Amino acid sequence: MLKKKFLKALRFLVFFAIGVVIFWLIYKDQDLGRITNILKHDVNYSWVWFSLFLGLLSHISRSIRWNLMIEPLGHKPWIFNTFLAVMVGYLMNLALPRMGEISRCGVLSRYEKISFTKLVGTVVAERIIDVLMLLLLTLLVIITQFGEVLKFLSKNPEIEDKVVLLVQSPILYGAATIVIILFYVYRKNLKRSIFFKKIEGTVNNFKEGLNSIKRIKRKWAFILHSVFIWLMYYLMLYVVFFAFDFTKALSPLAGLTTFVLASFGMVAPVQGGIGAWHFMVKEALSLYGVANENGVIFALLDHTAMTAMLIFLGLGSLLILPFINRKKGDVL
Q1: pTM value?
Q2: Which of 50, 76, 93, 139 qualifies as a cystine partner to 100, CB 3.0-4.6 A?
């Protein structure tokens, strides 16, 4: 038990350190005085507040969608409890990646007396839908913005040369060949390994998640909420473009590209996507001619605003939950 706690703490510290190092590398050479001056005088914060409002709508929609998935289990939790549980989950994710999914299931299970295991199954199904939505958006970006990527490579030949060298590298093909050979030779041992069992468990969870989606009664409502959630996520980032002079002229597709790349930064195993999110946003904006020193300011403000909202709502939810459920005899 002590060993598991130690490993969890170590994992937390390692991931947090990675995020901090990435963040430091991005901002270490930036002019802090210039950043402060722009944030004080050159930002239209009305768009930032509007962005947070759209984020709140996405969280409410996610709560309603989760209730739709819980209904086939024979329960109809109070939507306010579901929303508060979702916000606690977001807060926990800031502390430890993927802890939020377990935390929100624990919260709702406690206050609504629903099977924790069954709730985890609904969250697995949620994650499947979210991954599919992200992949669809990624495909859309590849199809519509491939020309912009080519233009970026042509303007930055050193990056293009590195990509070509990587693709043509004999080391890459040699390593791939060795991996395939080793997999074939040790395939029987791999099947008995903990790593393989985890993969097998993930595949089984994927199947269970898909089955739970089939049981949803109001499927169209589920689909509409899934689309709405990701639309709000996208708009939450895009509207902040209008807060800065150096991004307000960028197109909605530029916003979509930035959003998709930022999403991959957010799913990186670092707390709240710190560092990884900033890097991906900065690089995405550079595709559309936004200077590096401006891209990092956009990333800093947008990420800070999102994180502050999640902390505020998450901590508020922790305080409110036992109060509004006191009649059920719960104590914190």
Answers
A1: 0.81
A2: 93
Q: Contact, 232 vs 58, CB < 8 A?
A: yes
- Rounded to whole angstroms, the Cα distance separating 208 from 212 reads 6
> For 165-204, how does the pLDDT look when each residue is reduced to its tens digit (9 = 90+)?
655 667 656 766 776 776 666 666 656 666 566 666 556 6
Cα 185 to Cα 151: distance, rounded to the nearest angstrom: 44
Domain residue ranges in the chain: 31-327
Classify the C-alpha dihedral 222-269-94-54 as positive or negative: negative
Residue 88 and residue 315: Cα distance in Å, rounded? Answer: 7
The C-alpha atoms of residue 327 and residue 144 are separated, in whole angstroms, by 54
pLDDT digits (tens, 9 = 90+) for 69-106: 888 878 889 999 999 999 999 998 887 767 888 899 99
Q: In angstroms, rounded to a whole number, what is the distance separating the alpha carbons of residues 210 and 289?
A: 42
49/95 Cα distance (integer angstroms): 24
Distance CA 267, CA 19 (A): 12
